[in-house]
């Protein structure tokens, strides 16, 4: 496997050895977005299906074959594409609910999101854990935007105001409230039309050099 580069950085209080995963932004191969889209579709179809034994056996065989095909292409984190490529929908991750139409200025970011059958909790509503997942992603990316040094989620406070439907286009808005030293305070809301589904407050703390 390829190795991530090691770098030495100054933290202003003298040099400290800091492990930096210097990404060599991997080029996105033709067809990669379609592969991740196929994974999303698969997740939704499996979540929605009640297959018989014959179909289960056929799908298991094909999925196992696909996993075997991918095994030789595994890479260390610094050289992966999924979850890291901003040019791909959902950054190329099938974990995060699909986000698109993102527009942003320095203090407000808006976009659309759709939870699939894969994210279903019960009664047509998204699983409660998927909503902080969305907020962590959209708040976290905004907190780390504009060339800021990396910050990590310290807390997310989520208020579930009303049910969040799956298989419906929703809207989110995120606000970069303020920065205090290493602390970045964010808020956000998820809406189904006029109806507020969930609200969030989050703190993201900038990592010190060398901090894991
Ligand atoms: C581009 C990427 C987009 C995706 C982003 C996704 C982000 C993520 O999901 S990150 C993964 C989830 N988060 C984690 O794993 C974090 C685990 N925790 C940690 O690493 C550490 O606790 C960390 C970095 C948050 C803070 O630790 P540390 O740097 O030691 O903080 P510390 O020096 O004690 O505190 C700094 C300040 O933050 C405050 N603070 C830290 N944690 C909290 C907290 N949970 N609640 C309130 N305040 C806090 C402290 O009180 C302190 O404030 P002040 O400067 O006013 O005294």
UniProtKB/TrEMBL annotation:
A Pfam family the protein falls into:
4HBT
Q: Does the keyword Cell cycle apply?
A: no
Localization recorded for this chain is: Cell projection, Ruffle membrane; Cytoplasm; Membrane
Sorted alphabetically, the keyword list is: Apoptosis, Cell membrane, Cell projection, Cytoplasm, Fatty acid metabolism, Hydrolase, Lipid metabolism, Membrane, Transit peptide
CDD domains named among the record's database cross-references: PaaI_thioesterase
**Location of the Thioesterase domain:** 123-194
- Membrane protein topology class: Peripheral membrane protein
Entry keyword annotation includes Cytoplasm: yes
* SUPFAM superfamilies xref list: Thioesterase/thiol ester dehydrase-isomerase
Q: Spell out the reaction equation it catalyses.
A: (9Z)-octadecenoyl-CoA + H2O = (9Z)-octadecenoate + CoA + H(+); dodecanoyl-CoA + H2O = dodecanoate + CoA + H(+); hexadecanoyl-CoA + H2O = hexadecanoate + CoA + H(+); (5Z,8Z,11Z,14Z)-eicosatetraenoyl-CoA + H2O = (5Z,8Z,11Z,14Z)-eicosatetraenoate + CoA + H(+)
Q: Which domain of life is it from?
A: Bacteria
- Region Disordered: which residues? 1-27
- A GO molecular function for this record? hydrolase activity
State the EC number(s).
3.1.2.2
Top class in the EC scheme? hydrolase
User: Which family is it part of?
Assistant: Belongs to the THEM4/THEM5 thioesterase family.
Q: What is this protein called?
A: Acyl-coenzyme A thioesterase THEM4
Organism of this sequence: Streptomyces carpinensis
- Lineage summary: Bacteria, Bacillati, Actinomycetota, Actinomycetes, Kitasatosporales
């Amino acid at each position: 496997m390829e190795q991530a580069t090691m770098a030495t950085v100054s933290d202003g209080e003298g040099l400290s050895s800091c492990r930096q995963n210097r990404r060599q932004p991997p080029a996105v191969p033709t067809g990669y977005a379609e592969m991740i889209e196929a994974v999303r579709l698969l997740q939704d179809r499996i979540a929605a299906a009640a297959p018989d034994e014959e179909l289960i056996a056929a799908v298991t065989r094909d999925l196992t074959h696909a996993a075997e095909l991918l095994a030789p292409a595994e890479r260390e984190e610094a050289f992966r594409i999924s979850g890291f490529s901003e040019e791909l929908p959902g950054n190329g991750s099938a974990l995060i609910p699909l986000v698109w139409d993102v527009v942003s200025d320095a203090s407000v970011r808006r976009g659309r999101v759709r939870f699939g059958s894969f994210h279903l909790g019960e009664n047509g509503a998204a699983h409660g854990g998927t909503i902080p997942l969305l907020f962590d992603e959209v708040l976290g990316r905004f907190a780390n935007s504009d060339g800021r040094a990396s910050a990590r989620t310290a807390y997310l406070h989520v208020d579930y105001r009303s049910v969040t439907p799956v298989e419906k286009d929703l809207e989110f808005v995120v606000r970069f409230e303020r920065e205090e030293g290493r602390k970045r305070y964010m808020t956000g809301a998820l809406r189904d039309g006029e109806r507020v589904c969930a609200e969030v407050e989050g703190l993201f703390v900038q990592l010190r050099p060398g901090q894991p």
